[in-house]
């Protein structure tokens, strides 16, 4: 919300005139007409991505944080992502690459691309030189090479692995975010079979808040138990395949046939 001299913010406990906030430092306390006290702060990026309008489901801040750290998004990086959805991850990526880096987002749905554009531009105060949004399918529209990092958040990232391998620079990182175990399995196996990537690393994070008050220190009763799985792998040098894995697949890992052949 942009404050206006004559504006009023309506809450279910009464209105707060904007004029009471204008000129006050962040962290001020204001009282609504119903007598309730409110803390006044500018939103953090994590607040913004959870409350902005959504086209597609967004990546939660806990996973965006993992992606920034584990996919090693650095200032000055050339990053490609697909799809853009509502632009939540895009906001975090743009912040992490900074003014010297670039983010190119591929999105095949025009309506989602519009939602993402509005969300990103609203957060950053207008169009950004570092950001390019391409409306089109990742595999067909990808027109970049020497990319440092590729992030895929979509239903079928395995369909994009070959195109991603061609666009990534040697040593570059691919990171896929998927919601279900079947997607996870297919993504990992495709990366493994492709031959241009290191052994994929797959994981998830569970965040449990804690109630801390005097001697009552315990986990919260509720938590966000599942959001999604993450997979990362690194692009090998051109023409180089990783050495065979030292650990053989567990018996039955690849179905009946593999069980009998490993006996
Ligand atoms: C879950 S949403 C992405 C959410 C986004 N990461 C965010 O944080 O707001 C998945 C998006 O991927 C898009 N998509 C799926 N497959 C695609 C492809 N092959 N190329 C481009 N976009 C794709 C879908 O249209 C959808 O908007």
* Relative strand content: 25-35%
CATH superfamily of the largest domain: Vaccinia Virus protein VP39
User: Stretches where pLDDT falls below 50 for ≥5 residues?
Assistant: none
The secondary-structure element order is EEEEHHEHEHEHEHEHEEEEH
Please specify the SSE layout and strand pairing.
Blueprint (H helix, E strand, L loop, with lengths): L7 E4 L2 E4 L10 E4 L5 E4 L4 H7 L9 H10 L7 E5 L5 H10 L4 E6 L2 H15 L6 E5 L2 H4 L5 E7 L7 H7 E11 L2 H14 L6 E3 L6 E4 L2 E4 L9 E6 L21 H6 L2
Parallel strand pairs: 5-6, 5-8, 6-7, 8-9
Antiparallel strand pairs: 1-2, 3-4, 9-13, 10-13, 11-12
Helix pairs in contact: 2-3
The site of S-adenosylmethionine has 22 residues, from α3 and β6.
Q: What would your notes on this structure say?
A:
It is a single chain. The chain has 263 residues and is an alpha/beta fold. The protein folds into 2 domains: 33 residues, no CATH class; 214 residues, Rossmann fold. The chain is 28% helix and 25% strand. It is built from 8 helices and 13 strands. The strands form 4 sheets. Strands 7-6-5-8-9-13-10 form a 7-stranded mixed β-sheet, sandwiched between helices. The chain has a two-stranded antiparallel ribbon with strand order 1-2. Helix 2 runs parallel beside helix 3. The longest helix has 15 residues. The protein is globular. The model has no long low-confidence stretch (mean pLDDT 95). Bound molecules: S-adenosylmethionine (SAM). S-adenosylmethionine binds next to helix 3 and strand 6.
């Amino acid at each position: 919300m942009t404050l206006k001299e004559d504006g009023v913010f309506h809450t279910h406990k009464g209105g707060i005139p904007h004029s009471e906030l204008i000129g006050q430092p962040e962290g001020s306390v204001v009282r609504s007409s119903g007598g309730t006290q409110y803390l006044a702060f500018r939103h953090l990026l994590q607040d913004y991505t959870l409350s902005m309008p959504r086209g597609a489901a967004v990546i939660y801040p806990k996973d965006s944080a993992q992606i920034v750290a584990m996919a090693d998004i650095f200032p000055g990086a050339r990053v490609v992502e697909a799809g853009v959805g509502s632009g939540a991850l895009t906001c975090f990526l743009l912040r992490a690459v900074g003014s010297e880096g670039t983010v190119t987002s591929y999105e095949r749905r025009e309506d989602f691309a519009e939602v993402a554009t509005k969300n990103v531009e609203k957060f950053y105060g207008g169009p950004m030189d570092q950001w390019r949004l391409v409306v089109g399918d990742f595999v067909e529209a990808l027109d970049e090479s020497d990319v440092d990092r590729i992030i895929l958040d979509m239903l079928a990232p395995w369909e994009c692995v070959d195109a991603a391998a061609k666009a990534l620079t040697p040593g570059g990182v691919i990171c896929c975010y998927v919601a279900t175990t079947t997607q996870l399995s297919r993504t990992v196996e495709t990366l493994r079979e492709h031959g241009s990537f290191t052994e994929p690393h797959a994981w998830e994070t569970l965040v449990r808040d804690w109630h801390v008050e005097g001697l009552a220190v315990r986990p919260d009763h509720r938590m966000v138990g599942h959001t999604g799985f993450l997979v990362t792998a690194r692009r090998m040098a051109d023409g180089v395949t990783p050495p065979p894995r030292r650990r053989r697949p567990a018996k039955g890992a690849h179905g009946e046939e593999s069980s009998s052949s490993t006996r």
